[in-house]
Amino acid sequence: MKGSDRDDTPVLITEAAPSYQEQAKARKRKYMIMMSLRVPCLILACVFIHVWWLALLFLVLSIPLPWVAVLIANDRPPRKQEEINRYNAEKAARRALEREVSTDSAPNGAKPPTQPRAIEG
């Protein structure tokens, strides 16, 4: 591979979660955006006071915004469900058996005669 053909963009080699400071900053940003939507909703409700249904719509939209903003701001991303790598005897025996079968197979595609196998526990 030539040096000019390489892609020099960095590659993520870890699945580490963002730091708590980065998470808090993102949550604060979401909170501020949602709360900043409330003020225009209230102003629009006052502007359209003569169109009662539109004023009511803006008012109804502005009421749950603080509650939703707090819920979203306090919600951290879920923790990753990590699977613990434990030794599984059945799975290991199955893999070993598959490897044996694949190496024992005849070159012309015919199956070799099977022998009874005993698995000791």
Strand-and-helix sequence, N→C?
A: HHHH
Write down the overall geometry.
elongated
Which range best describes the helical content: under 10%, 10-25%, 25-40%, 40-55%, 55-70% or over 70%?
A: 40-55%
β-strand number: 0
Specify the number of helices.
4
Cα-atom Rg, whole angstroms? 31 Å
Give the strand content: under 5%
Largest sheet, strands/sense/barrel:
none
Span between termini: 50 Å
Indicate the mean pLDDT. 78
Low-confidence stretches: none
Structural class category? mainly alpha
Give the key terms:
single chain, mainly alpha, 54% helix, elongated
Task: Describe the SSE topology.
Elements lengths: L19 H28 L4 H11 L2 H10 L14 H16 L17
Question: How would you briefly describe this protein structure?
Answer:
Helix content is 54%, strand content 0%.
Description:
With 121 residues, the chain is mainly α. It has a domain at 20-74. The protein is 54% helix and 0% strand. The protein has helices at residues 20-47, 52-62, 65-74, 89-104. α1 runs antiparallel to α2 (52-62) and α1 packs antiparallel against α3. The longest helix has 28 residues, at 20-47. It is elongated.
